[in-house]
Amino acid sequence: MCGDGLLRPSHLRASYNLAVRVLIWHGWLLEGSGSNVFAAEVTRALRRSGHDVLLLCQAALDSAPSFFDEVGSVGEEVVSALRANDRAEADPSEGRAVLLRHDIGSMLHEFVIDEYEGFVVKRFLDLTPQELDGYLDRNVAALRTAISWHRPDIVVASHVVPGGVIATRALRDNPILVQVHGSDLEFAVRLQDRYAELAREALEGAARIGGGSRDVLDRAVAFAPSAAQRAIVIAPGVDVERFRPMPRGEALEAVASLLDDDPDTLRGRPDAMPPLLASVIGTDPGGPLRLAHQYDRNAPDPAAAMRLRCLVRAEGPVVAYIGKLIPEKGVELFIQALALLPHDVRGLIIGFGSHREWLEALVAAIDASGEGLEWIRSHSGMEIEIVPPPHLEVPLSDRITFTGRLDHRYANLALAAADVLVVPSVIPEAFAMVAIEGAAAGCLPLVARHSGLAEVAHALEAHLKRPGLFGFEPGRGAVERLAEGIRTLVSLPSQERDELRREVSSFARRTWTWDRTAEQLLGHDG
Which of 126, 182, 262, 514 could form a disulfide with 41 if both were Cys (CB 3.0 to 4.6 A apart)? Predict the structure, then answer.
């Protein structure tokens, strides 16, 4: 062990200018969540720096991103069907990246339930002992085959559980870096003893433990205190080529034009949904979730382009949320905060998830002077603080734009169109990837001041010498504090706000880069 706590085995090349063979195990897809984006962007950055990368994941081979040179499959015994990626784009560094889809059967295990075409999805918490053992065994066998084929210098495992466990069971001689992403801790390890035991196994077997913030590392090594000296902050980055400031009108027209040509919008939330939702509120607690299953929650709304074009004409500030629409993300706090703000403040909610119908119902109940609000509180699990709601000059439904999911093709443009980005999560977060993406796009972040979110807010505030500007305190009364935080940011003189946006963008684009993340994964300070 070196003095900085990083393992530097003799066969790991010492110079970053020499190619390193890296194997990344990631059990899911390459977009839609922070860990998915992390796996994709780190692979791209390593390839761009001339390294030889093999990524194991469940992404579809026929639509692999252009930074993969080859695609194929791997099972318990052999790498098969290896072929050139039809979408590949050459890189002058002569780096190489291969995507292998490993055989896990027909069941995809998740921390939070989402729908994935071609898979039966089941939460880790709901697995039988036999299902969990079978899943781990199949992954270990596939990883051993991939190791024999690729001969990596270092293996990066995504999530303490399951990635860290799979890697420690599959490897003997290769150094393992386990990257903690937070959802493994909050949705598995903290909730069931069997996952806490697996976490200890992974952490004690890893050469290094990475995490996006000191907070998430502290939460992880609490399950294996002996691993604390091997833990290092390895923060995610931001794609600085894509996330950059743009004029609002230009950004909104660009994203709307892309949506015009997207056939997936036909599968999104139909315009006929509001009356169906109104018919179940107050009488049918299972109705909102049932309605959410009647359309593709992973698609943009059919009317998303039209709604975004309407925002071009908005004269007041636009405050955005982007992410999953699930209770843990606190989107209902944002909706209630908007109801406390002047009617010229517009909300933009971009995201996907089974909780959307409850959020739409909350907006309707606020507009109806609170009718149905107590029923919604009782059956949705949402934190509702504004009882009764304030009298509104303009209906909240006229001030909030829902778009459905906007993936990586659209997110940078949508964020560039907003003045403020809120991250109101009510559970601990490993980092604040969406906040730094928003910052890079010139959107002022406002985050719940806890866990990894607080560390990002503090870094921005320290750079700008503006303590307290980018965070609000969580807990009871958070709606009022979130509203006050938004009010402070949107009330700044326009010249001062524009200067802040430029400074925030410049700082984010310098500080959090995927190239730096890739260097740190290899044991370099970056």
Answer: 514
